[in-house]
Automatic annotation (TrEMBL):
Reactions performed catalytically: ATP + protein L-histidine = ADP + protein N-phospho-L-histidine
Keyword Hydrolase: no
BP terms from Gene Ontology: cellular response to phosphate starvation
Name assigned to this protein: Sensor-like histidine kinase SenX3
Subcellular location: Cell membrane
Gene Ontology cellular component terms for the protein in this record: plasma membrane
PANTHER family cross-referenced by the UniProt entry: PHOSPHATE REGULON SENSOR PROTEIN PHOR
Enzyme Commission code(s) on record: 2.7.13.3
Native source organism of the sequence: Sphaerisporangium album
InterPro entries xrefs: BphY/WalK/GraS-like, HATPase_C_sf, HATPase_dom, His_kinase_dom, HisK_dim/P_dom, HisK_dim/P_sf, Sig_transdc_His_kin-like_C
Subcellular location, principal: membrane
């Protein structure tokens, strides 16, 4: 009946019931033992004093518990959305101290969650702005070329062929952008499905470099690989290949002509590392923590040109690597920067598709 009432009332009732039961028992024993006169008065006096002392101690303890519990509630109510939980001053009982620490951790996680949500919302707004710009520009160009072809403004075969080729290139680029957006949406929604199996990193690196060889040749960038053919890792070959390809393409795009992009695969303890080193001139230190954010493009020197993507490649690479329970990082090194993927050699948590 008292489980929904104040702790103070509960303790007071417990004390009263205890004293009343003890007093009743002593009185009954006294009567049964036919104690009379002065001994009887002494027994009843001792019992009464013990009861009053017990009741007083219960009230003091209850008051203390009520005070600290109200202080805990006040501390919770005083927390603003931008602040952490501050425990009430003074020493708390063990149970309430445990609750206070749990509240402190919960509020810290909530604040971190709100900060991540704000950062993600900012990234989404930036992504929408970049994608809108990247879509509007080629669409406007294609519309102008199509209208010129429809109106007969352009009739010479060479120009018509050039317009058709340009439209085809823009369509392909927009298709890649849509594919990247779809992949990123799957990653953010937790809908990325992996089919992990043992693969050799040497073969993976060779396949990726073969796929970007034409892009590197057109840019005048050399490609180099340093990997053991049988270096094993437990991963989804298609998705991991996409992550590595995004890093290599990013390196090629930001490496000047006659530069070199080096891809390495090495074993380190219980992990393997894939690294992509370029000659981009380095990334500003302030931008290093943000390079894997959605639509981040950094300084003007690294801003997209006609052959650039929508700024989603690195964000997709991070999502794929984290889905493999790995880590991805970037550091400035030598004449450029080095992107590195770390993956566990074996992945028991990836034994079944996720």
């Amino acid at each position: 009946m008292l489980r929904g009432r104040s702790i103070g009332i509960t303790l007071a009732v417990v004390a009263v019931v205890t004293v009343a039961a003890t007093l009743a028992g002593v009185v009954a024993i006294t009567i049964e033992m036919i104690i009379d006169g002065h001994p009887k008065n002494v027994v009843l006096t001792v019992v009464a004093i013990a009861g009053l002392v017990g009741l007083g101690v219960a009230l003091v303890v209850a008051r203390r518990l009520v005070k600290v519990s109200r202080g805990l509630v006040a501390a919770v109510e005083a927390v603003s959305p931008s602040q952490d939980f501050v425990p009430p001053p003074g020493r708390l009982p063990a149970e309430l101290d445990t609750i206070s620490k749990a509240l402190e951790q919960a509020y810290r996680r909530l604040r971190e969650g709100r900060e991540r949500e704000r950062a993600l919302e900012g990234a989404r707004r930036e992504l929408v702005a970049w994608v809108s710009h990247d879509l509007r520009t080629p669409l406007a160009g294609m519309r102008a070329m199509v209208e010129a072809l429809e109106d007969g403004v352009v009739q010479d075969p060479a120009t018509v062929t050039r317009y058709h080729n340009q439209i085809r290139l823009e369509v392909d680029r927009l298709s890649h952008m849509v594919d990247d957006l779809f992949e990123l949406s799957r990653i953010h929604a937790g809908a990325l499905r992996l089919t992990p199996r043992p693969i050799g990193l040497g073969d993976l690196v060779a396949d990726v470099l073969a796929g970007v060889e034409a892009l590197a040749g057109a840019k005048g960038v050399r490609l180099a690989a340093e990997a053991e053919p049988v270096l094993p890792v437990y991963a989804d070959a298609a998705e991991l290949g996409r992550a590595l390809r995004n890093l290599v393409i990013n390196a090629i795009r930001h490496t000047p002509e006659d530069g070199t992009v080096v891809v390495r695969a090495v074993a380190a303890d219980d992990a393997v590392r894939l690294s992509v080193a370029d000659c981009c001139g380095g990334i500003p230190e302030d931008d290093l923590p943000r390079v894997f954010e959605v639509a981040f493009r950094g300084e003007a020197a690294r801003s997209p040109g006609p052959d650039r993507g929508a700024g989603l490649g690195l964000a997709i690479a991070r999502g794929i690597v984290e889905a493999h329970e790995g880590a991805i990082a970037v550091v400035n090194e030598g004449a450029g920067c080095r992107f590195e993927i770390s993956l566990p050699v074996s992945g028991p948590a990836l034994a079944d598709p996720i």
